[in-house]
From TrEMBL:
This is Leucine-rich repeat-containing protein 56-like protein. The keyword Iron-sulfur does not apply. It comes from the Eukaryota. Keywords: Leucine-rich repeat, Repeat. InterPro entries: Leu-rich_rpt, Leu-rich_rpt_4, LRR_dom_sf, LRRC56. The keyword Repeat applies. Gene3D superfamilies: Ribonuclease Inhibitor. It comes from Callorhinchus milii.
Length: 202
């Protein structure tokens, strides 16, 4: 996982944006295969307190409220980096590659807004760990099962545009989210199915 800070991005106090620009245009003809232990060390380096302090330009990580980064969790999860950011409220991971929601840890208990659009997510297993979520943006993933969302008691906004939901029973789970007032389902197969109340063609 290679992370870069974008110098053109103007950060607000307590805000950090980390971007992964993918593979370099100059390919190494004899790539070195890193040992698993070394890979783990790289993840620790990128998301350690000292790394986060450098990116946020603050020594007190408790002041950080917003974090934006792009990551690839195919080889390893991000661990519980949230323990270093106890007051993080907003996390933006759009255009990342995230194998599972569990890959971003279970320690972001104060998180209220989470963006994971276009991350290749196949499901939402692990989302109940973010018990304080009020807004969840999941557009353009591969999600078919949203039953886990029903455990988010404080959820108010849910964006599921462009996913693969095709079963009306999945929508029924959302009735358990008593605070939910905005939902986007455009672009899902379920939107193409004829309504049971629609009049039949004569």
């Amino acid at each position: 996982m290679e992370l870069h800070q974008d110098p053109a991005y103007i950060m607000r106090p307590g805000t950090v944006r980390v971007l992964d620009f993918g593979e370099s245009a100059l390919l190494n003809p004899s790539p070195v295969v890193k040992e698993e232990k070394e890979k783990d060390m790289l993840v620790e380096e990128y998301l350690s307190p000292s790394r986060l302090q450098a990116l946020t330009e603050t020594d007190d990580l408790q002041e950080v409220k917003v974090l934006e980064m792009r990551v690839d969790t195919q080889d390893s999860s991000l661990g519980n980096f949230g323990i270093y950011l106890p007051n993080l409220i907003e996390l933006k991971l759009n255009n990342s590659f995230i194998v599972s929601v569990r890959d971003i840890g279970t320690s972001l208990t104060k998180l209220q807004v989470l963006w994971m659009a276009q991350c290749g997510l196949p499901d939402l297993d692990g989302i109940p760990s973010f018990s304080s979520l009020k807004e969840l943006y999941l557009a353009y993933n591969n999600i078919t099962d949203i039953s886990h969302v029903s455990m988010l008691d404080h959820l108010e906004v849910l964006d599921l545009e462009g996913n693969n939901i095709d079963d009306i029973m999945q929508i029924h789970y959302l009735a358990l989210c008593s605070q939910l007032n905005t939902i986007t389902l455009e672009g899902n197969p379920i939107c193409l199915k004829p309504s049971a109340e629609a009049p039949e063609d004569s």
